[in-house]
Amino acid sequence: MDFTYIIQRSAKRRKLTITVERDRSIVVHAPEGTSDEKIQQVVESKRQWIYEKIGHPQKYQELPHAPGKETVSGESALYLGRQYRIEVIKTDANEIQFSQRFLIPAKLAKQAEALREWYIGKAKEKIVPRVMHHAHQLGVDVAMVKIVDNRYRWGSCTVNDNVNFNWRLIKAPMFVIDYVIVHELAHLIESNHTPRFWNIVRAQTPKMEKAKAWLKENGQLLEEVI
Protein backbone atom coordinates (compact mmCIF):
# COMPACT_ATOMS: atom_id res chain seq x y z
CA MET A 1 0.00 0.00 0.00
CA ASP A 2 1.68 3.22 -1.16
CA PHE A 3 -0.32 5.78 0.83
CA THR A 4 -0.74 6.41 4.53
CA TYR A 5 -3.93 7.03 6.47
CA ILE A 6 -5.06 8.28 9.87
CA ILE A 7 -7.35 6.11 12.02
CA GLN A 8 -9.96 7.76 14.24
CA ARG A 9 -11.90 5.30 16.42
CA SER A 10 -15.08 6.27 18.24
CA ALA A 11 -17.44 4.42 20.56
CA LYS A 12 -20.37 6.30 18.97
CA ARG A 13 -19.54 5.18 15.44
CA ARG A 14 -21.35 2.13 14.10
CA LYS A 15 -19.93 1.98 10.59
CA LEU A 16 -16.42 2.24 9.15
CA THR A 17 -16.04 5.07 6.64
CA ILE A 18 -13.14 6.57 4.73
CA THR A 19 -12.79 10.24 3.83
CA VAL A 20 -10.18 11.97 1.69
CA GLU A 21 -9.78 15.51 2.94
CA ARG A 22 -9.11 18.50 0.71
CA ASP A 23 -5.42 18.44 1.71
CA ARG A 24 -5.29 14.84 0.35
CA SER A 25 -4.99 13.27 3.81
CA ILE A 26 -6.88 9.97 4.19
CA VAL A 27 -8.90 9.48 7.38
CA VAL A 28 -10.52 6.21 8.43
CA HIS A 29 -13.41 6.65 10.89
CA ALA A 30 -13.95 3.34 12.66
CA PRO A 31 -16.06 1.95 15.51
CA GLU A 32 -14.12 1.43 18.71
CA GLY A 33 -12.58 -2.03 18.81
CA THR A 34 -12.10 -2.37 15.04
CA SER A 35 -8.78 -4.13 14.46
CA ASP A 36 -5.96 -2.64 12.40
CA GLU A 37 -6.16 -5.70 10.16
CA LYS A 38 -9.85 -5.14 9.42
CA ILE A 39 -9.20 -1.47 8.67
CA GLN A 40 -6.35 -2.36 6.33
CA GLN A 41 -8.60 -4.81 4.46
CA VAL A 42 -11.27 -2.15 3.94
CA VAL A 43 -8.75 0.48 2.87
CA GLU A 44 -7.21 -1.98 0.40
CA SER A 45 -10.65 -2.76 -1.03
CA LYS A 46 -11.21 0.97 -1.56
CA ARG A 47 -7.79 1.58 -3.14
CA GLN A 48 -9.15 2.65 -6.55
CA TRP A 49 -11.75 4.94 -4.98
CA ILE A 50 -9.05 6.57 -2.82
CA TYR A 51 -6.81 7.16 -5.85
CA GLU A 52 -9.72 8.78 -7.68
CA LYS A 53 -10.42 11.07 -4.72
CA ILE A 54 -6.76 12.04 -4.32
CA GLY A 55 -6.60 12.97 -8.00
CA HIS A 56 -9.96 14.74 -8.19
CA PRO A 57 -9.17 17.99 -10.08
CA GLN A 58 -12.17 19.95 -8.80
CA LYS A 59 -11.37 19.18 -5.20
CA TYR A 60 -7.60 19.37 -5.09
CA GLN A 61 -6.35 21.69 -7.79
CA GLU A 62 -3.42 23.66 -6.46
CA LEU A 63 -4.24 27.34 -6.23
CA PRO A 64 -1.98 30.28 -5.46
CA HIS A 65 -2.38 31.14 -1.81
CA ALA A 66 -4.06 34.51 -1.35
CA PRO A 67 -2.03 37.08 0.58
CA GLY A 68 -3.11 37.63 4.15
CA LYS A 69 -5.00 40.81 4.96
CA GLU A 70 -5.51 42.88 8.07
CA THR A 71 -8.69 44.40 9.46
CA VAL A 72 -7.73 47.96 8.53
CA SER A 73 -9.67 50.63 6.67
CA GLY A 74 -9.33 50.26 2.93
CA GLU A 75 -9.01 46.48 2.95
CA SER A 76 -11.92 44.30 1.85
CA ALA A 77 -13.53 41.08 3.03
CA LEU A 78 -15.48 38.44 1.10
CA TYR A 79 -19.15 37.82 1.93
CA LEU A 80 -21.68 35.88 -0.18
CA GLY A 81 -19.39 36.01 -3.19
CA ARG A 82 -18.57 39.72 -3.15
CA GLN A 83 -15.76 41.79 -1.71
CA TYR A 84 -16.89 44.55 0.66
CA ARG A 85 -14.80 47.41 1.99
CA ILE A 86 -13.66 47.41 5.61
CA GLU A 87 -13.97 50.60 7.64
CA VAL A 88 -12.55 50.76 11.14
CA ILE A 89 -14.63 53.19 13.16
CA LYS A 90 -14.51 54.78 16.60
CA THR A 91 -17.59 53.61 18.45
CA ASP A 92 -18.72 52.19 21.77
CA ALA A 93 -20.36 49.25 19.96
CA ASN A 94 -18.97 45.81 20.70
CA GLU A 95 -19.83 44.07 17.45
CA ILE A 96 -19.24 44.35 13.72
CA GLN A 97 -21.97 45.97 11.65
CA PHE A 98 -22.57 45.31 7.95
CA SER A 99 -24.27 47.71 5.57
CA GLN A 100 -22.77 47.18 2.10
CA ARG A 101 -19.45 47.49 3.94
CA PHE A 102 -17.94 46.15 7.15
CA LEU A 103 -17.99 48.66 10.01
CA ILE A 104 -15.54 47.33 12.57
CA PRO A 105 -15.16 48.99 15.99
CA ALA A 106 -11.55 50.09 16.48
CA LYS A 107 -11.26 48.01 19.67
CA LEU A 108 -12.06 44.85 17.65
CA ALA A 109 -9.82 45.62 14.68
CA LYS A 110 -6.77 43.99 16.25
CA GLN A 111 -8.69 40.90 17.35
CA ALA A 112 -8.25 38.33 14.59
CA GLU A 113 -11.25 36.33 15.80
CA ALA A 114 -13.74 39.21 15.58
CA LEU A 115 -14.53 38.90 11.86
CA ARG A 116 -14.41 35.10 12.10
CA GLU A 117 -17.12 35.18 14.79
CA TRP A 118 -19.20 37.49 12.61
CA TYR A 119 -18.91 35.04 9.71
CA ILE A 120 -19.92 32.11 11.93
CA GLY A 121 -23.00 34.01 13.12
CA LYS A 122 -24.03 34.81 9.55
CA ALA A 123 -23.43 31.20 8.50
CA LYS A 124 -25.82 29.98 11.19
CA GLU A 125 -28.37 32.62 10.20
CA LYS A 126 -28.31 31.97 6.45
CA ILE A 127 -27.08 28.42 5.83
CA VAL A 128 -29.23 26.51 8.34
CA PRO A 129 -32.59 27.68 6.83
CA ARG A 130 -31.30 26.81 3.35
CA VAL A 131 -30.48 23.30 4.56
CA MET A 132 -34.01 22.82 5.86
CA HIS A 133 -35.47 24.21 2.62
CA HIS A 134 -33.49 21.79 0.45
CA ALA A 135 -34.14 18.87 2.82
CA HIS A 136 -37.87 19.50 2.40
CA GLN A 137 -37.50 19.71 -1.38
CA LEU A 138 -35.57 16.43 -1.46
CA GLY A 139 -37.84 14.69 1.04
CA VAL A 140 -35.03 13.81 3.46
CA ASP A 141 -34.99 14.05 7.24
CA VAL A 142 -32.07 15.83 8.86
CA ALA A 143 -31.43 15.17 12.54
CA MET A 144 -29.21 18.19 13.17
CA VAL A 145 -27.44 20.95 11.22
CA LYS A 146 -24.12 22.22 12.55
CA ILE A 147 -21.87 25.05 11.43
CA VAL A 148 -18.35 23.81 12.09
CA ASP A 149 -14.72 24.88 11.82
CA ASN A 150 -13.30 22.30 9.42
CA ARG A 151 -10.68 23.79 7.15
CA TYR A 152 -10.47 20.96 4.65
CA ARG A 153 -14.11 20.11 3.98
CA TRP A 154 -17.01 22.31 2.88
CA GLY A 155 -19.63 19.90 4.19
CA SER A 156 -20.15 16.41 5.55
CA CYS A 157 -22.93 14.11 6.69
CA THR A 158 -22.82 11.51 9.46
CA VAL A 159 -24.27 8.06 10.03
CA ASN A 160 -26.86 9.66 12.30
CA ASP A 161 -28.24 11.92 9.52
CA ASN A 162 -26.53 15.00 10.93
CA VAL A 163 -25.07 17.43 8.39
CA ASN A 164 -22.14 19.77 9.02
CA PHE A 165 -21.08 22.81 7.03
CA ASN A 166 -17.88 24.82 7.12
CA TRP A 167 -18.50 28.38 8.32
CA ARG A 168 -16.20 29.65 5.55
CA LEU A 169 -18.92 28.82 3.01
CA ILE A 170 -20.70 32.04 3.98
CA LYS A 171 -18.09 33.87 1.91
CA ALA A 172 -19.28 32.08 -1.27
CA PRO A 173 -22.21 33.08 -3.50
CA MET A 174 -25.54 31.58 -2.51
CA PHE A 175 -25.68 29.32 -5.58
CA VAL A 176 -22.40 27.74 -4.38
CA ILE A 177 -23.75 27.35 -0.84
CA ASP A 178 -26.88 25.70 -2.27
CA TYR A 179 -24.76 23.28 -4.28
CA VAL A 180 -22.71 22.20 -1.24
CA ILE A 181 -25.88 21.80 0.84
CA VAL A 182 -27.63 19.67 -1.79
CA HIS A 183 -24.46 17.63 -2.34
CA GLU A 184 -24.43 16.60 1.33
CA LEU A 185 -28.19 16.05 1.56
CA ALA A 186 -28.10 13.87 -1.56
CA HIS A 187 -25.75 11.54 0.34
CA LEU A 188 -28.68 10.78 2.66
CA ILE A 189 -30.39 9.29 -0.40
CA GLU A 190 -27.41 7.85 -2.28
CA SER A 191 -24.23 7.36 -0.24
CA ASN A 192 -21.82 7.12 -3.18
CA HIS A 193 -21.09 9.41 -6.12
CA THR A 194 -23.10 7.33 -8.58
CA PRO A 195 -24.84 8.66 -11.72
CA ARG A 196 -28.06 8.64 -9.66
CA PHE A 197 -26.38 10.81 -7.01
CA TRP A 198 -25.27 13.42 -9.55
CA ASN A 199 -28.71 13.39 -11.19
CA ILE A 200 -30.26 14.24 -7.81
CA VAL A 201 -27.82 17.09 -7.22
CA ARG A 202 -28.17 18.46 -10.75
CA ALA A 203 -31.97 18.39 -10.61
CA GLN A 204 -32.00 20.36 -7.36
CA THR A 205 -29.17 22.76 -8.28
CA PRO A 206 -29.22 23.65 -12.00
CA LYS A 207 -26.06 25.76 -11.46
CA MET A 208 -24.10 22.73 -10.23
CA GLU A 209 -21.34 22.98 -12.84
CA LYS A 210 -21.01 26.73 -12.32
CA ALA A 211 -20.77 26.17 -8.54
CA LYS A 212 -18.08 23.48 -8.94
CA ALA A 213 -16.12 25.82 -11.22
CA TRP A 214 -16.42 28.66 -8.69
CA LEU A 215 -15.06 26.46 -5.88
CA LYS A 216 -12.26 25.23 -8.13
CA GLU A 217 -11.19 28.81 -8.84
CA ASN A 218 -11.90 30.46 -5.49
CA GLY A 219 -11.81 27.69 -2.88
CA GLN A 220 -8.60 28.84 -1.26
CA LEU A 221 -9.88 32.39 -0.91
CA LEU A 222 -12.58 31.07 1.41
CA GLU A 223 -9.89 29.65 3.69
CA GLU A 224 -8.40 33.08 4.39
CA VAL A 225 -9.61 34.70 7.61
CA ILE A 226 -10.25 37.84 5.57
TrEMBL record:
Residues 14-218 form the YgjP-like metallopeptidase domain. Transmembrane segments: none annotated. Keywords: Hydrolase, Metalloprotease, Protease. InterPro entries: UTP_pyrophosphatase-like, YgjP-like_metallopeptidase. The keyword ATP-binding does not apply. One of its GO terms (molecular function) is metallopeptidase activity. Pfam families: YgjP-like. The keyword Protease applies. This is SprT family zinc-dependent metalloprotease.
